[in-house]
Amino acid sequence: MRLEEIRQQLRAAGAKTCHEERVLRAWTQNVGLDTRHRKAEDFLPRAVRQLLPALTGQLDGLARLRSEHPGEDGSARLLVELADGQTVESVLLPRDGLCVSTQVGCAVGCLFCMTGQEGLLRQVGSAEIVAQVVLARRRRKVTRVVFMGMGEPSHNLDNVMEAIETLGTVAGIGHKNLVFSTVGDRRAFERLPQGPVKPALALSLHTTKAELRTKLLPKAPRIDPDELVDLGEHYARTTGYPIQYQWTLLAGINDSDEEIEGIIRLLKGKYAMMNFIPYNSNEGLGFERPSWERASQLAGRLHQSGILARLRNSAGQDVDGGCGQLRARATAADGTTLREKPLKRIARAG
Ligand SMILES: C[S@@+](CC[C@H](N)C(=O)[O-])C[C@H]1O[C@@H](n2cnc3c(N)ncnc32)[C@H](O)[C@@H]1O
Ligand code: SF4
Question: What are the structural domains of the chain?
Fold first, then answer.
């Protein structure tokens, strides 16, 4: 469901823009419609008030909690059921963050990502994206939303842009605290700077070698790492927020000294930082994470060259690992299987 459909229902009942905003603010911020100074019946048209019980029922059905899996780091993975019974994952992150899903499955098919093994099953509507935030806010404070759950946001741009606008306005989240994470897509680079709410950008780079990137991210748009960094730099300068590069560390694949030299060449002097995320083991995908020592060494090498680098575990690693695994397990437990796909192993030499 799209947010626009909710707005249309309100408008059909006679709501003006200010009424729409008030209803959406109450929903997204989990607050009542009455304010200290004015009661709802003093400003909302009667037909709108009459619509509210049915609308609330619809909104509550958009995202329901199927199960919660707390991690040791203060995070918690939520398996969220959508109105049609499909499930996606949201992750409550330490320090008031939330990671949301934008698609059920994903067409990019990254070899190391569980979500990519399913292919795309369906888009997540803008109202369903915002509903994940509302669900999380019923459990904890949320002041930062990262679009790093299941799915590729640039393959669902209309819904994601609509959700970003709502989160950055009526839901009261700071624009730089909305983080759009992508493998890089020209449509996203065009659209993001035009929106009224400009999110921060995370670019999933993973390697500086164009050929290896094509193997690891088989259906990502063909943009060479050099050009991707140029596009990212332009966006960073436009918005004033640094680009957060993401690099899933795969032992023997993208953790070589040569890659580090490549990152230094690409990112030196850029308004950027590097997040190394050691691979989160997915059974059967055939990759391994490097040792923590090796990972720290890589981050240290970037630091020495003046590039800000962070080494971090993806949140909730102790509770069913990486993105898409909770859903995969729940799907398997339901007796259905993920679409089988032969593992395409890539040459260690890259
Ligand atoms: C799940 S994706 C969603 C957003 C977007 N599709 C993207 O790739 O940036 C978010 C991040 O999770 C990372 N990721 C996926 N599977 C992983 C795994 N098994 N271990 C560690 N990181 C993983 C991806 O590399 C990506 O940087
Ligand atoms: S890492 Fe991102 S783009 Fe790649 S398959 Fe997973 S969700 Fe899709």
Answer: 1-61 (no CATH), 63-319 (3.20.20.70)
